[in-house]
Design a protein that fits this description.
The structure is a single chain. By secondary structure, the chain is of the alpha/beta class. It has a single domain, classed as Alpha-Beta Complex (Spore Coat Polysaccharide Biosynthesis Protein SpsA, Chain A). Helices cover about 35% and strands about 25% of the residues. The strands form 2 sheets. The protein has a 7-stranded mixed β-sheet, sandwiched between helices. The chain has a two-stranded antiparallel ribbon with strand order 2-3. Helix 1 runs parallel beside helix 2. The protein is globular. The two termini are about 30 Å apart. About 40% of the residues are buried.
Length: about 220
């Protein structure tokens, strides 16, 4: 499973670069990266960002990060971040598809655990590692079990949010997103259309896990 970490937000409501702001002594974006590194189902990680500071952080620590997680990590600069989150989704998705085409000898989507892409946001620090592992493992089992495409999402009660996992059947749809529109638009289109797919909901009892950081007050409350 390939993880795409979306780390190019403008932080308008925060009033500063929230992804570099410290939460319990650590940069906010590092929580998503550590979670992805610790998840056994995730084999490759692509971070899409507009911020040179995030690129430098990963470049500086890449040897430690790779040893820690035994995963391939790449960073892609997004020069179109002002367009909205769709630009990061398209750039990350394109990178995954290019990796499949140019991979030497090994087909990136050769088995159930490698046939999907998980999108994670970099401002969701309360997501627990165990929850991410449950979500990814449940998705892999659903892909093995079902004969139709699978989308998996994290939920709490009636609320749903990130991360979201798509089988490769939806990558072309993700490439068509425009503006400040995320993967939920692809899910809505699939639900309202004639696409047969299995929506795999994985639940947490802690609503806080779905929350992202929008303002400085959110950091204080944490």
């Amino acid at each position: 499973m390939h993880a795409i970490i979306l780390a190019a937000g403008s932080s308008r409501r925060f009033g500063a670069n929230k992804l570099l702001s410290l939460l319990n002594g650590r940069p906010l974006f590092s929580y998503a990266l550590e979670n992805a590194l610790s998840c056994p189902e995730i084999t490759d990680i692509t971070v899409v960002t507009r911020y040179r500071e995030i690129e430098e952080y990963i470049e500086k620590n890449v040897d430690i990060l790779i040893r820690f997680g035994q995963k391939a990590i790449s960073v892609i600069h997004n020069p179109f971040a002002d367009e909205g989150i769709s630009s990061s989704i398209r750039i990350g998705t394109s990178a995954v598809m290019d990796a499949e085409l140019h991979d030497e000898g090994t087909h990136l989507f050769g088995d159930a655990s490698a046939s999907s892409v998980i999108f994670m946001v970099a401002d969701q620090p309360f997501l627990k590692k165990d929850t991410l592992c449950r979500l990814t493992a449940s998705h892999t089992e659903a892909v093995k079990r079902e004969t139709i495409p699978v989308i998996s999402m994290l939920c709490c009660g009636d609320m749903s949010g990130n991360p979201v996992i798509f089988t490769r059947d939806f990558l072309s749809e993700l490439l068509m997103l425009k503006g400040d529109t995320g993967g939920k638009a692809v899910i809505k289109k699939a639900v309202s259309g004639d696409v047969k797919f299995f929506l795999n909901r994985v639940y947490t009892d802690d609503e806080k896990e779905l929350h992202d950081i929008d303002t400085k007050e959110d950091m204080i409350k944490s």
